[in-house]
Every structure is written in C-alpha cells, then in structure tokens.
Amino acid sequence: MSLPSKKAIQVDENITDYQYKMLNLEMVLRYDDTKCLECGFCHRVCPVTTQIVDGKEVPLKRTAIGTPEQMNIKSDKKTVVDLDKCIWCGSCTWICPGYTLELFIDGQKKLLLVENGSLPEFEEEIRELEDGRKVRKVVEGSIKITCNETDEKIIENFVDECAVGAMSRKEKDIEVDINKCILCFKCTEASKNYENISVEVHRDRFKQVKGEPGSVWNGIMLRVLGKEGKIKGIISRTQNKLADAVMRLLGREFIEE
Ligand code: SF4
Ligand code: SF4
C-alpha cells in the first residue's frame, strides 16, 4: 500500500501548489501570492481547529492556513499552508475574497463541500481593483475606526494597510467606504501596532448565498461572524431587519480573535 505523499511545489515565483497524492488520487491546493489581500478569512474558515493529543481532542491555536507569523513558518509569502494539518477540504478557496486559492482534484477545479451541499454557493459580485486584481465581498456588516493619532504620516501608513483601497485619510481622521470594504481581519490585526487607532468590525451575516447550508456551516458561521453574527444568521434568514433591531436592543457583543 502506498503512503500518501504531501509536498509544496513552487510553480513559479508566486504560485505554490500544495499537493496531496495517494494511489490515483491527486489533490492540489493552489495559492497565488500576487492575489492575496491578507484579509485573514482563510485562517478563520479552515476547519482544522483541534488535534488529538493522548486520545483527547484539544483546541489548536493555528489552523492549517494563515500568515507565516500566525503559522510560525518562515516564508516570504503572505499566506502559507501547513501540509501536516491540511485536509484539502477547500473551505479556504470557498471563502477567499481575492480568488487567491483554488482546489484541483485530479486536475479539475472542484469544491466538493459545495457540490455535496455542505456549503452554499455565494452570489458573486466582483469588483476590479486599480491594479486589475479581482475582489468580492463575502460578508455584510459594519466597521468603525477611531483615530486619535495626530501624526499624518502614521495615519497614511495605517490607511495603506487596506489592500482594497477602502480607507482614506481625511485630515486627522480615517474614512471607510463601506461599499469597497470587505469587512476583513486585516486592519483589526494591523491596529494592534498603532497605539492611537482602534477598529471595530461587525460581521453580521454572509453575503447572499444560493442553496441551503449543511452542518459544516454552523461552525464556519461562528468562526467568521462570531457569536453575534451567528445568532443574527439564525434569526435573520428571512428577517434581517428584525434581527438588526433585536441585536441593537440587546447591545452588540464585539468578538474578535
Ligand atoms: S484546504 Fe481546508 S484544511 Fe486545507 S488550509 Fe484550506 S480550509 Fe484548511
Ligand atoms: S478597511 Fe475594510 S477592507 Fe480595508 S482592511 Fe479594514 S476591514 Fe479590510
């Protein structure tokens, strides 16, 4: 019996194929560094969140994909995959707002979790960035940036953290264009290095999806939207406005990893 082989193949300077091979089966998770927005959705959506240690299931701090810093892997790429943990499920390719990841099974682009109904399909609304990269929004919600910084250069640096051009400096304040903002994890993470700037992102719900989600969906909702978003998701399938009002009355609980 042949053992599975797992390897990372550098296709060119920017594209990495994370390959799993056993008998006739070949699965490839393809990553293109030029497209990565460092949004952080892949890290949150990856279902590899536990590990069996001494027969017990223990939570993992790192999933199978994330920034080299998150994954404790040395690399010049924006995002890396841990071959020991990855199960080639393709959840990261399903959510990626920048079309950075693709999953191929025996040479064909496939998302079995969508095909078997575990995950629903997004209604696509693609926007082209100035540099030609394509981006889509996968969640809806709101963002609030509080800027007490007085140094305009520092504010400019913070504004540049956004890979989709959603932030702009207005004198000593920061504005966000909610139509461009993909409500990602990037500026929240970045704000940890800026003493006088703070960010609150509320991911209220996934963008319109086609089809009825299966049980995988619940775990994903919790990890991406947080408790508040998950509650809203459940209440709001047909009653989004009512759910918004209920959550406002209850007071928002801000949950960020
Ligand atoms: S393919 Fe699945 S297990 Fe692998 S990094 Fe992506 S989400 Fe995680
Ligand atoms: S402004 Fe929006 S799109 Fe830009 S980094 Fe922040 S959350 Fe992401």
Average of the residue pLDDT scores: 86
Beginning-to-end CA distance, first to last residue: 42 Å
Instruction: State the helicity in percent bands.
Output: 10-25%
Q: Which strand order do you get reading across the main beta sheet?
A: 1-2-3-8-9
Bound molecules: iron/sulfur cluster
Order of helices and strands: EEEHEEEHEHEEHEEEEHEEHEEHH
This entry's quaternary arrangement is: single chain
The counted number of beta strands is 17
Globular, elongated, flat, extended or rod-shaped: what is the shape? globular
Secondary-structure-based class equals alpha+beta
Number of individual domains:
2
The biggest sheet amounts to:
5 strands, antiparallel
> Treating each run of at least 4 consecutive H or I residues as one helix, how many helices?
8
Radius of gyration: 19 Å
Taken as a percent bin, the fraction of beta residues is 25-35%
Q: Which segments are poorly predicted (pLDDT under 50) over 5 or more consecutive residues?
A: 235-257
Properties at a glance:
8 helices, two-stranded antiparallel ribbon, alpha+beta, binds iron/sulfur cluster, Alpha-Beta Plaits, disordered C terminus, 2 domains, 257 residues
Q: In words, what does this structure look like?
A:
This protein is of the alpha+beta class and 257 residues long. It folds into two domains: 5-116, Alpha-Beta Plaits; 137-257, no CATH class. The protein is built from eight helices and 17 strands. The chain has helices at residues 41-45, 68-71, 91-95, 112-115, 152-159, 186-191, 216-236, 240-250, and strands at 5-10, 15-22, 25-32, 50-53, 56-59, 65-66, 80-81, 101-105, 108-109, 121-122, 126-128, 134-136, 139-147, 167-170, 173-176, 197-206, 209-210. The strands form seven sheets. A five-stranded antiparallel beta sheet has the order 1-2-3-8-9. The protein has a two-stranded antiparallel sheet with strand order 4-5. Strand 8 and strand 9 (108-109) form a beta hairpin. The protein is globular, with a radius of gyration of 19 Å. The chain starts with a strand and ends in a 7-residue tail after the last helix. The relative contact order is 0.13. Bound molecules: iron/sulfur cluster (SF4) (2 copies). One iron/sulfur cluster is lined by residues 143, 162, 164, 166-167, 176, 181-184, 186-187, 201.
